[in-house]
């Protein structure tokens, strides 16, 4: 007879390097910084991220609500000792399904598990009867990762909001384009036929609007709006902005110049004469800025630019940025502080197609706040179709900031002036 091989029963769940890392991470939890209510809300919100499904979210919420609220205080231990059979009864699923979902939550880094040799779950208490450890389902990793997961939920919701805004704008533009096509009487039949074919071609390229990406929808919307302006025989936006081009004197000496403005209804400070630096720091309105201040020098070769001495970058108020960049509202951003605007920079870069490297270089050269303003200005010009390569435009701004030739305040005030002019007209 041959040797009989005895297969020992495996003890506990399979341990992978990732699960071992999650266990180590759970041990560093600062218990008492997050409440049970916050984790319960987070568990219900994680389904929108795609990290877990609805049934797993239900199980996670049941685990969180099983632990007493005082277990999340500094002296507590948020560990669940219920069996899979009891959990299956509470959520209305089979025992095997609960076991598989616990493994999925473990792999996602939302729980950690410590199984005993006989697969029982029980607490380990000290001499005072307090739970110091135990074999069960440990929720401490949720405390460690709460800020990360909460920020992920916020980002996904912001992206969904921006996608919904792009979808509504596209559908409105498509409807308006078809109405404009039927109402355009001055164009010839041949022109109307070509424009109509182009509108339908855009619609066919987009396909099912609800399944199209936000980038495709924004590009299609821009094209449809341009076709509407063509059918309505409206002047080009660049021609409208040309009216304010000569409002600021382009000649400067030693970093200072006299500003002489023309008489415009929206400008309440025509008689004031002040330096460029003083206006950047103190001017509450942007009526005296001009298109020249929109970093037109970015389009010129570097040999055409006289390099001035490096000047400290002037700061602008957040309200000036919001007034100058209505695209923030268009894409679903509503920053109430500089911190909000800074946190929105990665998402703005994705909307505009700016690479992570270009954003990192801008932050390194300008600082987070100034880089946020630069990205916002780039997003506005991309939304106006004045910039075809937002990433290259931001890199050019970064190079000029390194050389001391970038004046973001002028760009902000100039954009605000253009918006004021367009609204009044």
Q: Determine the fraction of residues in helical runs and give it as a percent range.
A: 40-55%
The pLDDT mean sits at 77
Number of helices: 19
What structural class is derived from the secondary structure elements? Answer: mainly alpha
The gross shape turns out to be elongated
User: Would you identify the regions where 5 or more consecutive residues have pLDDT less than 50?
Assistant: 239-311
Main sheet: strand order: 1-5-2
Task: Please trace the helix and strand order, writing H or E for each element.
Answer: HHHEHHEEEEHHHHHHHHHHHHHH
Main β-sheet description: 3 strands, antiparallel
* Strand count: 5
- Beta-strand share of residues: under 5%
Radius of gyration: 30 Å
Cα end-to-end separation: 100 Å
Protein name: Replication protein C
Domain Plasmid replication protein C N-terminal: 13-184
Biased composition (Basic and acidic residues): 265-276
Domain Plasmid replication protein C C-terminal: 318-417
């Amino acid at each position: 007879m041959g040797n009989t091989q005895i297969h020992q029963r495996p003890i506990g769940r399979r341990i992978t390097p990732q699960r071992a890392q999650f266990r180590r991470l759970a041990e560093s939890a600062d218990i008492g910084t997050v409440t049970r209510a916050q984790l319960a809300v987070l568990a219900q919100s994680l389904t929108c991220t795609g990290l877990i499904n609805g049934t797993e979210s239900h199980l996670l919420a049941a685990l969180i609500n099983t632990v007493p609220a005082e277990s999340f205080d500094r002296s507590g231990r948020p560990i669940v000792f219920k069996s899979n059979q009891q959990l299956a009864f509470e959520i209305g699923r089979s025992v095997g399904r609960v076991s598989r979902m616990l493994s999925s939550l473990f792999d996602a880094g939302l729980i950690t598990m410590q199984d005993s040799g006989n697969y029982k779950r029980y607490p380990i208490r000290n001499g005072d009867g307090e739970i110091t450890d135990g074999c069960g389902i440990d929720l401490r990793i949720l405390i460690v990762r709460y800020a990360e997961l909460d920020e992920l939920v916020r980002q996904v919701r912001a992206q969904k909001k921006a996608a919904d805004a792009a979808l509504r704008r596209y559908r409105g533009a498509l409807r308006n384009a078809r109405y404009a096509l039927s109402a355009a009487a001055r164009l010839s039949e041949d022109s109307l036929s070509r424009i109509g074919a182009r509108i339908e071609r855009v619609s066919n390229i987009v396909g099912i609007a609800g399944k199209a990406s936000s980038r495709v929808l924004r590009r299609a919307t821009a094209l449809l709006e341009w076709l509407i302006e063509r059918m309505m025989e409206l002047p080009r936006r660049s021609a409208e902005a040309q009216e304010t081009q000569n409002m600021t004197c382009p000649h400067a000496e030693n970093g200072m110049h006299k500003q002489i403005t023309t008489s415009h209804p929206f400008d309440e400070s025509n008689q004031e004469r002040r330096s460029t630096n003083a206006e950047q720091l103190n001017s509450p309105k942007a009526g005296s800025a001009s298109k020249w201040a929109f970093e037109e020098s970015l389009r010129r070769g570097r040999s055409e630019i006289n390099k001035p001495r490096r000047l400290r970058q002037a700061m602008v108020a957040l309200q000036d940025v919001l007034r100058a960049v209505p695209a923030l509202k268009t894409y679903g951003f509503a920053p109430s502080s500089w911190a909000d605007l800074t946190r929105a920079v990665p998402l703005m870069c994705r909307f505009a197609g700016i690479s992570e490297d270009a954003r990192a270089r801008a932050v390194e050269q300008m600082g987070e706040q100034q880089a946020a303003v630069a990205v916002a200005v780039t997003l506005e010009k991309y939304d106006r179709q004045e910039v075809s390569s937002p990433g290259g435009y931001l890199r050019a701004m970064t190079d000029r900031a390194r050389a001391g030739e970038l004046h973001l305040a002028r760009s902000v005030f100039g954009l605000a002036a253009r918006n004021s002019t367009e609204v009044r007209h």
